[in-house]
């Protein structure tokens, strides 16, 4: 024996062989001595460990033997109490064949509690064991159990806190041999969660419970659930928390209203004062909302500066009034030590359960949509959801998806609408207008998809394609017909980047275009947004020799004089005036012409649909004209098929131009 184990002799960790029957250590290495509080190996091997071994431990060890018989090893925390000093070690138990044919137990200590971090040691599974008689009386508990929980436990019913459950367990264990459950139990001193492995000892007619204390894990789980459902900043429920809470309460079926609240201009606070102040403000807002909602319902921070409130309808008279109350509460100035007084507004969208939707996800989306409508209507107000909002959103989402596909497949086309010079009745050029035919959605109007492309930034690559295609077409027609047309291309605000002018310069060179033949159309809002940057960009374009048109004039709020220091050459009067949609349309047509003359700007009238409109514009001495009466936007081949008969067109009742446009 000594020879065999000389190999282990010098190992750092304690190893010994335990004779289960004799309850004696029959061999141990030197490293075992301190753990067993032994002076010599002889002294250790002479100890009778059976003397104070509880029946529970006995039964446990017998159970281990069955594992060893089939070649299995066991790893667990084990309590020792040599010389009444309590020790705990993580041990590896395995079977060890003795020369007499019996199996002993080889114990290797993997780690001792004293060498590990305490919390780590306790999070491991200890070999807590309880032995009960067939009628549920506690026969024995092991040292590990006694050390942690004392000696107050008497029976199984006491442990489970339930007499009939105790009986069921014994019946079940008897029948199946084993039972296994996770349960909150009473140890005689306190409640703990245990993972319980019960085993029926057939020969003795006893129930042995091996317990693993999983209270820490349970608590951590509870904490994790709390953290997952609450907002760290305000302590309110978060998105998941309120969703779960509402789902849990849904069985009550009480009608409720969901309020989606967004703080107006919160970004400005963050940008101006920094995020620390922003966070403080959010906490203050949360407190005020909490006061308003109190016990009437649930309140959650949904993310950023968005909050959600759920209130059962029996707690308030009317949705709008409750929303107004909340707005008024938040409108009261906030006093923050660092910055003084701060005033904010908020926009609220509302949706009702069950009228608007049956499930919380949909209600949140609906209330969110309604909130955006409230913002559009001028903020600091509330708005209730209506189904048309959902349709609009669905359409928008579908379009967004198809637009991405169309960009990849490049399924766009440019149409060209004639612009006629009223002085010589000749074709001045064309405005390039984009067309998109989607297989599923059909023809989609640019008034619908251009704003979407602007939102997503897709307008930049799309705009590049438009410019390139228009330049290519212009060059091709120039070569074919030897005529100097103007090609007018619409631009979006997002395209006014410093890279635009160099990009256009490259195109002009590539297609050998006279820059004066290229015009760019921009609305006044595009020109005035981030004015300095836009101005620089427009000046770069003008330096290239391009013309700049002010599109849709009359629909914005600025006066022409405000736009005077921008390099604009031409103004396009919005078609609504030509079509007489406004009170005083004629006056505006005439005034625009007069102002433009003074400012040395050319004017184009858009949307000419009838001969009388055309005549009127001629009388007003408009320079250029555009409209269905003179020609609809057409694909290039259609324009070519008509062999440019509009080249010398005279915009009169019987001109070919009419033929073309019809
Ligand atoms: P816009 O720049 O004001 O273009 C004129 C719009 O009026 C065009 O609509 C044109 O087809 C239409 N139109 C022309 N004559 C008449 C008429 O006599 N009566 C009526 N009722 N309408 C007439 P379209 O092609 O649907 O384009 C709508 C808007 O979409 C454009 O307004 C422009 O803002 C934008 N857009 C079109 N193509 C492009 C493009 O290539 N790039 C950019 N950024 N925007 C574009
Ligand atoms: Ca235009
Ligand atoms: Ca226009």
TrEMBL record:
Q: What is this protein called?
A: EAL domain-containing protein
Q: Please give the Pfam families that the UniProt record associates with this protein.
A: EAL, GGDEF
The record ties this protein, via InterPro entries, to:
Biofilm_reg_signaling, EAL_dom, EAL_sf, GGDEF_dom, Nucleotide_cyclase, Rev_trsase/Diguanyl_cyclase
Task: Give every EAL domain span.
Answer: 396-647
Domain of life, per lineage: Bacteria
Q: Which PROSITE patterns match?
A: EAL, GGDEF
Q: Which part of the chain is the GGDEF domain?
A: 254-387
């Amino acid at each position: 024996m000594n020879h065999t184990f000389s190999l282990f002799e010098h190992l750092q960790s304690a190893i010994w062989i335990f004779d289960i029957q004799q309850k004696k250590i029959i061999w141990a290495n030197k490293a075992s001595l301190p753990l067993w509080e032994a002076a010599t190996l002889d002294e250790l091997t002479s100890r009778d460990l059976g003397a104070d071994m509880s029946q529970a431990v006995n039964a446990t060890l017998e159970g281990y033997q069955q594992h060893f018989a089939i070649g299995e090893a066991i790893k667990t925390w084990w309590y020792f109490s040599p010389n009444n000093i309590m020790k705990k070690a993580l041990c590896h138990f395995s079977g060890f064949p003795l020369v007499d044919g019996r199996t002993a137990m080889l114990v290797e200590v993997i780690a001792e509690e004293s060498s590990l971090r305490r919390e780590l040691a306790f999070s491991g599974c200890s070999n807590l064991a309880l032995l009960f008689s067939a009628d549920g009386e506690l026969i024995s508990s092991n040292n590990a159990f006694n050390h942690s929980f004392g000696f107050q436990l008497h029976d199984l019913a006491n442990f489970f806190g339930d007499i009939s459950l105790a009986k069921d367990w014994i019946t079940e264990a008897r029948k199946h041999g084993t039972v296994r459950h996770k349960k909150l139990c009473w140890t005689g001193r306190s409640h703990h969660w245990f993972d319980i492995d019960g085993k029926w000892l057939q020969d003795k007619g006893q129930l042995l419970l091996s317990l693993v204390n999983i209270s820490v894990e349970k608590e951590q789980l509870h904490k994790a659930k709390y953290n997952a459902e609450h907002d760290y900043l305000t302590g309110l429920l978060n998105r998941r928390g309120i969703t779960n809470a509402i789902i849990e309460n849904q069985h009550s079926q009480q009608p409720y209203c969901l309020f989606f609240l967004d703080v107006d201009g919160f970004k400005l606070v963050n940008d101006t004062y920094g995020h620390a102040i922003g966070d403080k403000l959010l906490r203050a807002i949360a407190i005020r909302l909490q006061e308003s909602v109190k016990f009437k319902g649930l309140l959650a921070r949904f993310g950023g500066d968005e909050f959600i409130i759920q209130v059962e309808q029996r707690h308030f008279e009317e949705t709008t009034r409750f929303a107004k109350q909340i707005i008024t509460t938040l409108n009261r100035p906030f006093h923050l030590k660092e910055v003084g007084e701060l005033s904010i507004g908020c926009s609220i969208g509302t949706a009702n359960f069950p009228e608007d939707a049956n499930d919380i996800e949909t209600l949140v989306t609906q209330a969110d949509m309604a909130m955006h409508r409230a913002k559009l209507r001028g903020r600091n107000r509330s708005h209730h959801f209506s189904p048309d909002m959902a349709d609009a959103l669905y359409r928008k989402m579908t379009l967004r998806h198809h637009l991405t596909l169309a960009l990849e497949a490049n399924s766009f086309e440019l149409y060209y609408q004639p612009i006629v010079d009223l002085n010589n009745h000749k074709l001045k050029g064309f405005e390039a207008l984009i067309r998109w035919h989607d297989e599923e959605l059909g023809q989609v109007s640019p008034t619908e998809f251009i704003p979407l492309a602007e939102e997503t930034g897709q307008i930049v690559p799309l705009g590049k394609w438009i410019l390139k295609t228009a330049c290519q077409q212009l060059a091709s027609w120039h070569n074919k017909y030897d005529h100097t047309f103007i090609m007018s291309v619409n631009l979006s605000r997002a395209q006014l980047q410093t890279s635009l002018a160099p990009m256009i310069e490259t195109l002009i060179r590539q297609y050998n275009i006279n820059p004066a033949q290229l015009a760019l159309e921009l609305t006044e809002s595009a020109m005035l947004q981030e004015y300095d940057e836009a101005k620089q960009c427009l000046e770069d374009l003008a330096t290239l020799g391009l013309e700049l048109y002010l599109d849709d004039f009359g629909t914005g709020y600025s006066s022409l004089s405000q736009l005077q220091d921008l390099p604009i050459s031409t103004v396009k009067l919005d078609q609504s005036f030509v079509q007489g949609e406004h009170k005083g349309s004629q006056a505006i047509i005439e005034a625009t012409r007069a102002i433009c003359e003074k400012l040395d700007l050319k004017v184009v009238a858009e949307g000419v649909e009838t001969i009388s409109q055309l005549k009127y514009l001629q009388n007003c001495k408009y320079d250029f004209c555009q409209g269905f009466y003179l020609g609809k936007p057409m694909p290039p081949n259609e324009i070519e098929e008509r062999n440019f008969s509009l080249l010398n067109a005279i915009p009169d009742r019987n001109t070919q131009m009419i033929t073309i446009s019809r």
